[in-house]
Amino acid sequence: MYRLLTPFDYFEPQSVREAVELLARFGHRARVIAGGTDLVISMKKRQLTPECLIALAGLEELRFIEFDPVAGLRLGPLCTHAEIARSPLVREHFGMLATACNEVGTPQVRNMGTIGGNLCKAGPSQDTPPPLVALEAKLRLLGPQGERVVPLDQFCTGPFCTVLSSDELVVEILIPPLPPGGAGCYKWFTKVTVTDETLAGAGVVVVRGPGDVCADVRIGLGSVAPMAIRARKAEALLRGNRPAPGLVWEAAERAAQEAEPRSRAAYRRHLVKVLVNEAITELWPLTADLPGGLG
Ligand SMILES: Cc1cc2nc3c(=O)[nH]c(=O)nc-3n(C[C@H](O)[C@H](O)[C@H](O)COP(=O)(O)OP(=O)(O)OC[C@H]3O[C@@H](n4cnc5c(N)ncnc54)[C@H](O)[C@@H]3O)c2cc1C
Q1: CATH hierarchy code of domain 60-175
Q2: Of all protein residues, whose CA lies closest to atom 9 belonging to ligand 1?
Q3: Pairing of strands 30-33, 52-55
Q4: Contact in structure between 79 and 97 (CB atoms under 8 Å)
Q5: CATH code reported for the domain at 182-286
Q6: Where in the chain is the domain with CATH 3.30.465.10?
C-alpha cells in the first residue's frame, strides 16, 4: 500500500567528499538518493524509512562516460540509463550495455534512473548486471576509510544486499576492454508490459582465438537466481572448443541447470537455454575477422 513519506532531513552535498562525510555522520539512518525511481517507491511502501536523504544529483563529478583502449570504459554512477543507451562510446565499444539500458522500464525511468542505483538496488531482476557481469565490470567504492575496488560478481551478497557499507558510495563503474576477437550481446525475454520485471536475461561475451576455437566465453544470467550469476560450468564446456551447434546447445542446457529461479523455475530455465543458445549462435560468426572487441 502506498502512503505519504515519513519525515526526513534532506541534504544536497556539494562534493563527493561531503557526501561521504554525511554518510559517516548518519550511518544506517541515512540513504543516498540518485534518480529516486526505486528508493522513493520503497519509502512510500514503508519498506525503507530513512531519517535523512543525501541527494547525489548535483554531483557532476559522478556523471561521466570515458573510454580508453587500454583501461576500457569508465562510467559515473549518476549516468542515467538513457544517457548510457545513447552514448556513442558505449554503443561502439559495449553495445550490449546500451541494449540493456535501453530495455529498462519506461522513458521516464530511463531518464531518471541511474546505473549506480540499478546496481546498488541489487534486485535479482535488474537488467544491467547480466551484461556487466559478463563484461567483468568492477565497482570503485569510496568511504571514510578510503577506496576499494570490487568485482561486480562479488558486489551482491543476496537479493537486495551488497557488500557496500552504510558509509560507502559507488563512485565509478569500470569495464575492461574486450580482447581482440571478442563480441557480446544482451538477450532477454520480453516482458508483457514495460513495467514488468525481466523473466530471464543473458549477457554473453564470446572470444574467438587461434585455430578458430572459443578462446573465452562469459555468460551472465539475470532474473534466474538471487543475484546475477556467471554460468561457469557452461562456459567451461565451450572454452577451448569450436562451438558447433550441438556443443552450444549442451552449454545452454548446462547454463539452465546452473540457474536457481525462485518462481516459474522450469519456464525460466527453458528461457535461459533459449537465450544462451541464441546469443552464442549469433555471436560466433560475428567474431570472425574481428580486429578488436565488439561488445
Ligand atoms: C516503473 C518502473 C520500471 C522499472 N523497470 C526496470 C527494468 O525494466 N529493469 C531494471 O533493471 N530496473 C527497473 N526499475 C528499477 C529502477 O528504476 C532502476 O533500478 C534504477 O536504475 C534505479 O536507479 P535510481 O537512480 O533511480 O536509484 P535510487 O532509487 O535513487 O536508489 C536505489 C538504491 O541505490 C542506492 N544508491 C543509488 N546510487 C548510489 C551510489 N552511487 N552509491 C551507493 N548507493 C547508491 C540508494 O541509496 C538506494 O538504496 C524500474 C522501476 C520502475 C519504477
Answers
A1: 3.30.465.10
A2: 104
A3: parallel
A4: no
A5: 3.30.390.50
A6: 60-175
Predicted local distance difference test score (pLDDT) of residue 37: 97
Grid coordinates 576455437 are at which residue? 213
Q: Are 119 and 170 in contact (CB under 8 A)?
A: yes
Check pocket membership of 126 for ligand 1, CB cut-off 6 A: yes
On whether the pTM is more than 0.90, the answer is: yes
What pLDDT is stored for residue 78 in this prediction? 98
Distance from the CA of 50 to the center of ligand 1, in angstroms?
Answer: 16
Instruction: Give me ligand 1 centre to Cα 156, in Å.
Output: 15
Kindly state if the Cβ of 104 falls inside 6 Å of ligand 1.
Answer: yes
Q: Tell me: domain 9-55, CATH 3.20.20.70, correct?
A: no
Give the residue, out of 8, 23, 29, 37, with the most ligand 1 atoms within 8 A of its beta carbon, to mutate for a pocket test: 37
Distance CA 56, CA 78 (A): 8
